[in-house]
Structure formats: structure tokens, C-alpha cells
Prior knowledge:
Layout: H1 5-28, H2 36-52, H3 56-73, H4 81-99, H5 106-121, H6 138-158, H7 163-177, H8 188-203, H9 211-232, H10 242-261, H11 290-314, H12 318-341, H13 345-353, H14 355-360, H15 363-377, H16 384-395
Helix pairs in contact: 1-2, 1-4, 2-3, 2-6, 3-5, 4-5, 6-7, 6-9, 7-8, 8-9, 9-10, 10-12, 11-12, 11-15, 12-13, 15-16
Amino acid sequence: MTSPAGFIDFFVLEASEYVEQLDALMLRAAAGQPDGEAMQRTARALRGSATMAKLPAFAELAAAIEGIGRATRDGVIPWNDALRGAMIAAVDDLKFLVRGARTWGDAEVQRATARTRELIGFAPAMRRASTAAPAQGGNTFLVGEANNIAAGLELLATRPDDRDAAVNVLGRVRALRGFAGLKDVPGLGDVVEGAEIAAHPLELGQGGLSLERVEVLRAAAALLRRIATALRDAKPADGASAEADRFSTALDALDAAVGDAERIVPIASLFFDDAGPHVVSAAPNPPTTLMQRFTLEVVSLGEHLGQLVGDARAAGDAAAQGRARRALRRLLRSIADIATSFGQADVADFARSMLDGAAALDSVALDKLGALSVALSAPGADGERLRQRVVELRMSSAPTPVV
């Protein structure tokens, strides 16, 4: 399977920079040993970029250079004239291969493969860095995939109408979300989830991405690169940072934009105000009343709201608070939309009136939402208890105890 043209274009730009960095390392090491750590780090990034562009032979050559960097850093193999010559030749081949990426074929594969074999021959006992995720170990895999996905998100942000690019990067995102070690890295799951939410409409063919969605992609890419760097350096990945703040702000802006754009209206409102006949008509003897169907709908929403209120109260850091705020606002909009579609204006108006309080996570608002969750979960016969409770909550500055 070949990579979309957009990914190849991005690869050429990114890989050229990495190859220039490797070339500079070789020049600085003309009279001594190169910086093995820098060589390993740059080659790892180059491998990730080649993997994303679906150029496995290129990725294998970058992996071999990564292994040489690790081995020289750790003193596993000596840095001598023969190895220096092979590395200079490998960097020259990388320049040629980058130029040939757009017309990649058998000649490029053979050239990359031959050079890879030569480099591996200098250290036959060292464990070669593999492009297969399970063989890399948890953090190594997460570092590589975070950088790969960041590159894909950056590309997609420059091509917000490119559905193929969205499909490609979302495939990597979902694979990462299924990786067991993801939960061990605070914040990483939230970033990839946010990126998926932002790009999903394009994958579904719903048109180009909005400015708010593009900003989420860019912010997610920046935060992914920061998390990858922290993992690589064995540092905490969940500390406060400008990247984390930007990502949270971008998600909030997207949440607000989506909330303004998505509204459910009753089917009856789409017809003329006359006796008909209409295309759709009500059944003369429906098995349940409109209110009965509404109460069935809102019970599960009430239970979910109770859970989210508990999460909001327990949120101890900015990231958890951001998740709680966005989840509460999304659910309140859903409650309002469903209530509107069933003609329950009081419930809909109250749910919408709580959006700002949910965004602030203030204690009075959370108390009111907790009371609303109880009322939704047990609306009473024909929803009468729910209606009364909503009126009480709207009139009060704080909810009265629920019995």
C-alpha cells in the first residue's frame, strides 16, 4: 500500500531536515567520535517519518543508523575509520533516497536494503531497532508512535480537505489507543482522543475541517511531541506546559463551536401548521405516549450525568478538570436537545442555562446538576416530578435536599 501524496510531500520536507542533521553530526565527528545520543535521536525521528510515509526500506535504514548511534553511545562497538566511512556513505544514500521518495521503486528499495545490511554488519550482536511495535518495549514504541502521529496531524492541519490523510492518521491514532501501555502515560490518551474527535468528520466525508478542528490538530501535535520528548528523557509527561494549555483551550473552542452548530428539532416543527395531509402522520393508537418515551430516554442520561458530576468533583488537576468540563457540557447539550425534540421546554431551557456553570465547575452548579441527575433518573409518572424539580432548581440559588 502506497502512502497518499500529501504524506510523501511532508516526508520529503521532514526527512530532509533530519538527514541534514545527521550530515552535520558526521562533519563534526571528522576528527573524533560523533554524538551517539544525537545520532540515535535523529535517526529515530527519521524512522518514524519513513514509517508514516509507508517506506519500510527507508525506515529500516534509519533504524540501522539508530542502532549504530545507540551502540557507539554505549561503547558496544568502536568508532573507527571503516564505520565512519560507512556512515558517511549511508547519509549520502539517505539524501538520494529522500529525493527519490516521490517515485519510490525497486531501485530505491535495493539501495536502502544494501546499505542497511552493511551497517548491521558492523555490529552483528547488537539488537537492531525494529519498526514493529511489539519488539520495541513500551516507552520506545510510544515515543515513536507519538512522533509519527504528530507528523501526521501536522500534515492534516495543512490539508484540512484531504480525506485520505485523515484516514491514514486516524488508523495510527486508533492503533495507539488500543495499546495497553497507553494508560500508563498520563494525558496521552486524552490527546489522541481529542485528535480523533477533531479529524473524524473528514474521515466520514462530511467536508473539510473547520478552523477550530485544525487548531485542535496542531495543538495535539505539539503536545504529542512534548510528551514523546518527556518519555524519551524519562521525565514526567503530565506536567503543566504551554502545549497542554493550548490543547485544552483548542478543545474548549471546538466544544463550543460544535455545541452552537448541532441542534435537534422536533419533527413536527418541519411541517406546515395545517391539518394536512402530511408525509408523516401520528399513529392513532401509539403503544406509548410522547411523555413516556421521553422519560425512558432521560433515565440513562440522568445516571450518566451523576457519574460526570462525581468525576468533576474529584478532578484534581487542570487536565482532569478540562475533561470533566467538556463532558458535562456535551451531555447537557444532549439533554437539552432530546428535551426539545420531545417538547419539554422547561427541561431543555434549564439544561442550557447550566452550560456556563458546568464550564466553571463551581460548587453550586455541580450541586444543581447532581440534583438534576436524580430527577432525570426517576422522573416520576408522566415526568411530573421531573418538571417540578426543574422549576425548583431554576428558582433556587442552591438545590434543596433530594429525598
